[in-house]
Amino acid sequence: xxxxxxxxxxxxxxxxxxxxxxxxxxxxxxxxxxxxxxxxxxxxxxxxxxxxxxxxxxxxxxxxxxxxxxxxxxxxxxxxxxxxxxxxxxxxxxxxxxxxxxxxxxxxxxxxxxxxxxxxxxxxxxxxxxxxxxxxxxxxxxxxxxxxxxxxxxxxxxxxxxxxxxxxxxxxxxxxxxxxxxxxxxxxxxx
Amino acid sequence: xxxxxxxxxxxxxxxxxxxxxxxxxxxxxxxxxxxxxxxxxxxxxxxxxxxxxxxxxxxxxxxxxxxxxxxxxxxxxxxxxxxxxxxxxxxxxxxxxxxxxxxxxxxxxxxxxxxxxxxxxxxxxxxxxxxxxxxxxxxxxxxxxxxxxxxxxxxxxxxxxxxxxxxxxxxxxxxxxxxxxxxxxxxxxxxxxxxxxxxxxxxxxxxxxxxxxxxxxxxxxxxxxxxxxxxxxxxxxxxxxxxxxxxxxxxxxxxxxxxxxxxxxxxxxxxxxxxxxxxxxxxxxxxxxxxxxxxxxxxxxxxxxxxxxxxxxxxxxxxxxxxxxxxxxxxxxxxxxxxxxxxxxxxxxxxxxxxxxxxxxxxxxxxxxxxxxxxxxxxxxxxxxxxxxxxxxxxxxxxxxxxxxxxxxxxxxxxxxxxxxxxxxxxxxxxxxxxxxxxxxxxxxxxxxxxxxxxxxxxxxxxxxxxxxxxxxxxxxxxxxxxxxxxxxxxxxxxxxxxxxxxxxxxxxxxxxxxxxxxxxxxxxxxxxxxxx
Lengths: 191, 533
Ligand code: HEM
Ligand SMILES: [Cu+2]
What we know:
The structure holds 2 protein chains of 2 kinds.
Chain A: H1 6-45, H2 61-65, E1 73-81, E2 87-91, E3 95-98, E4 104-112, E5 118-127, E6 135-139, E7 146-148, E8 152-162, E9 172-181
Parallel strand pairs in A: 1-9
Antiparallel strand pairs in A: 1-3, 2-4, 4-8, 5-7, 5-9, 6-8
Chain B: H1 25-30, H2 34-62, H3 73-108, H4 116-135, H5 163-190, H6 203-234, H7 248-265, H8 268-282, H9 289-302, H10 318-346, H11 355-378, H12 380-386, H13 390-420, H14 426-452, H15 467-495
Helix pairs in contact in B: 2-3, 2-4, 2-15, 3-5, 3-13, 4-5, 5-6, 6-7, 6-8, 6-9, 8-10, 8-11, 8-13, 9-10, 10-11, 11-13, 11-14, 13-14, 14-15
The complex binds protoporphyrin IX containing FE and copper (II) ion.
């Protein structure tokens, strides 16, 4: 409501302005806070393939004996390299069918057709998103940056198994790798 | 709702040392008067509406026939982008702010806005923002071409250097609307005349109050998003770059966290306008006043938990898709309450169809169309088909053009006699209504068909099977564009005071404090608060 004297009015106005300005500042900060929150959310839920860019520690023999022989899951491997580079990145076994719980090796090659040494980092992504939680890798070239000499072709092995707790409705999944150059700007982070 | 028992103060000016406006350009540059600033906002918005409209004409000319004939694809992309940015941030939002400036103090019995100098600033930075945005079209490499949604990596990796100008201008627009919103909240909170309790406030005031909170909640998030785009593009951060541990999908989450509340920022004040006009010309009280207030508040709250309905095809887990689908559908409940209340207000009313009422009835019907297509889009599995097609374009033009813009036109026809003191040319107004109504449907309705058939949005060429409908759409577009010149002519005539002088109470069924002051509204009103009971 309107105040009688204009000083009191001024004071009352300033109080609300200060509070609203605080809300504005907080919401600006919240916009940036969404970035780490998004990471935490993806880590917790396994969405977005965050969890598959690191080796699974604490692997017990138990995990591997529980092979679920009753079903097979189809896994497709897709490989891209970022446009504008002279790399050939391919999956040697583009499709494999595995029993959950069974350890499997697949091979990838990266060929550097230029004459300069390349430093690259592969970033994985898995779909459907929730399948990421059930894909366990013990060895992967995507855990580290890789150095590929000029005119060289390198073969990498990726070792993984699927958790036998993988939901029954997931019978097919795709693991996509994108190969990026590592330079000053892309301080590729490995979780 | 409210009645005034004492005559308004400005009728006896000798008691105060009132001075009228200064003369010439200085009046407009230095003004802190809410009516002057309101007029500035409204004219600015109208000029931007015509500018953005000209770009739409370029788009429709290119799409008149399949194949590329008039403009380069890159220029076409700049047109769709800048058209969207100008219409959202340059036309609709400033026009509502202009109405807020003109009407809110008069509706609550306040002498002016609470923060008049900030008011001047928040208007005067806007022309600079849009000058920068428009200038960016002429720099080397062209202006922004990544869509008004500026998705990464389009805006980070694949954009031109003018992206810096885009970011800067969006920052200025954001600062302007945040200041405008703060002003509205403080005014409504602190400056109501004694007796103007919360639940006596006109609905236009209520809806703007809630809109202002949405603005201060999400405009800073937009500012954050453009800042991240800027640093990703120019300073080597990788918020949205997977190579550096970022994620382009996260851009969409941040953008739509702003973007969905933003669409309600553009429609809630429209709900307030329609809730004011319909009772006037139905000569009845608004049906369900309290439920209107609560419906507005619940729409505003729900708008924060539906953003990912713009992202159904990004590969979210099915539980998330279901969550966002149901929340989105839930919003149509309070929206339906509003439509029901408007219709119930008209029910058995002594309705007369003056021009503001014609636009309001068109709003109710056509906005509801837009709501229905929105509901269709909210159904996750079918959105995979509709997403990024002309069906979405049809949806948001029904809610924004026949929704937000029609409400703005209705508001202008409703309050213009109060602003100028003369009745506008009703013949022109009716011509404007019928031309707009017919052409807008010829323009947007067939977009549903080509969209369902698979025509993608934001592409300068299309398969020949869509040729016939696109020709009709373009003709509707040109007709709608031309119809707005009738409006321009009418406005110029009215501002030159050509027309019959009107009484204080222009419409016999109208209620509210703004009708207690004479027409044209004096430069200063309610310097002494009115008594309300
Ligand atoms: C019943 C109410 C509504 C529902 C259920 C609804 C639902 C949706 C959905 C699901 C989409 C995404 C479609 C897609 O991209 O595949 C969408 C897009 C859109 N809606 Fe609505 N909507 C509603 C009301 C509104 C209102 C009131 C406005 C603005 C005044 C609005 C403006 C927009 C805009 C601008 C877009 C497109 C954004 C873009 O991609 O550029 N909608 N709507
Ligand atoms: Cu939305």
